[in-house]
Amino acid sequence: MEMKAELVFIPIPEIGHFQSMLQLANHLVSRHHALSVTFLTFNAFFASAPPPPPAAPSFPGIRFITLPQVDLPQLDDISGVDCYLLSLQLLKPHVKHAIQTHVLASDSPQLAGLVLDPLASAMIDLAAELGVASYIYFPSGAAMLEQVLRFPDLDSQVSELPATKLTLPISVNSVPRRVLQTAMLEKDEDGYDPMLYLGRRFREAKGIIVNTLIELEPDVAELVSNRQYPPVYPLGPLIDRSDWTDDRIITWLDGKLAGSVVFLCFGSRGALGAAQVQEVAHGLERSGYSFLWSLRQPPRVKHALPSDYTNPAEVLPDGFLDRTAEKGLVCGWTPQLKILSHPSIGGFISHGGWNSILESLWCGVPIMVWPMYAEQKLNACKIVRELGLGVGVTENEDFIDGRDLLMIYTDGGELVKCEKLEIGVKRLMDGDNEVRRKVKQMSDTFREAVMDGGSSFVVLQQFIDDVFTEIK
User: Fold this and answer.
1) How much is the pTM?
2) EC number(s) (predicted)?
């Protein structure tokens, strides 16, 4: 009788993390009929993605179990990362109970391991207690993964790092030290200890799945072959292909010429302060290009999420919507991939989150990277300076502003002025340039990687084989 195996996925309720993890599960159960997946989900008031309904018939071979809510102590002085780390610690007994009740039943497939979001790495201990393997699913790129894995070794050297340049081992070029998150450079930063904790826990996992492909980040081969770390499986791109969107938007795009529209969207936590919104609006108007702008309102309290404006005119320049009525459409949140795949989209202005970069490259749309938080400065440096697959928000590619989300929400620091944005949009939308050629080539490469015999196709099969080897 053929052995059946089940993996338990423990995501966090963040759109960028959860959706690509769901795609991973889809790929796994589609590839091997004897493999199934159970998601253990939870909700949190600071989450950007609510858990799915208990029954999800559109995902055969995948089931969802919602964990009980846990109460956190006063959160005023801790970061969102710390909120998740603490939540997952408190959820441990509930996770154990759910696995024992729903997965370890006598008639269930054999539990083959836990697949964990990085912030759920505390569950490595639970996997060991249950006698099964633990795997980290890393939703960002290999460059950031390499930094996290190396961080324990760098811990004693952080204060001695040079002030101007730092050579990233996974990169071809020397990059400014400040492309790293501040939490990785200053021991008194709030995020330093969590980053160190993650770097140490990652090394205890049986393997690490990373949402990238060898053709995009060739130096990931160094991670794969480095015996100091767990096996690394680069099997991306894992992107959300859900097809929901606003019919009004698609109808508007249908009326535009191919490649004529620039799309602006800054992720689930991205929103600009009022003064910066004014500069963006003037820059778009001055550029003369058609635009679709996902404009969102900054949150009013810590840990909350941006929301759609009830009346966007209240934050835009006087008369802007009337003057740009033929060329522009301002909307709220919209799924990016559906928009990026529309033939009228010719350029994408983004915060540079890893999922956004993968989606843009998959669709063959050049990207202007405007990093705002997390590892986005590192992503920008890699995509723009090293790979030439995008442009910076200003002509000299000085896109690294060192601000955090709170500063962006409140217009802290230096604004990107409309004159620079006008020039940037024109560079992005240039129909015949080297960046556009490279992006089209990478789009073809992405598709080849996930086809039968492609690099990511092969790595996915290797991961499945390793999972079954573990339980034999």
Assistant:
1) 0.91
2) 2.4.1.-
